[in-house]
Amino acid sequence: MAQYVIGEFFSLLMIAFAVGMDAFSVSLGMGMLQLRLKRIAIIGFIIGVFHIVMPLLGIYLGKIISSQIGSFTAIVGACIIIAIGLQMIIHALFPDTNDRLSPVGAGLVLLAFTVSLDSFSVGLSLGMSQVKAIVAVLLFGICSTCMTWSGLLIGRKVRGLLGVYSEMLGGSILCGLGIAMLIS
Fold this sequence. Notes:
transmembrane; mainly alpha; transport
């Protein structure tokens, strides 16, 4: 039993890390704006809150869907995670040049919503697989907040060298976890 709990926690931590890579890569680019530390703290907090709320909504919607489609939920959930991973990799390879949002006011809320859409979809998948919602969303929020802060601070120094690679890593992790879910 303890081994199962540790395994589930580790899987959720890896998913939280992978989903947080999107926020990290966006934050690396935003870090080039030379934001003040107070603004960095606010941005990380807002993105973290969205990474708690969005997957929570996804998990509950996933539970509703899983009660409707029954035994196919694990396959559907794995396919959703793989699709999100592939989308992250494709976005990293072919970025949209109009992605730049201002991290203030409505721009910050839109930015937080945008980078947390992946966590909503992953939450939907996790809801179908009956995971512990509170553990998942707290890990998502904590990881994305810390990764956003790290990205903003590193971006101030590095000036964009890691952005594409971090999003590709996150996408690769999600694809690997989705494939592992299909195999098991």
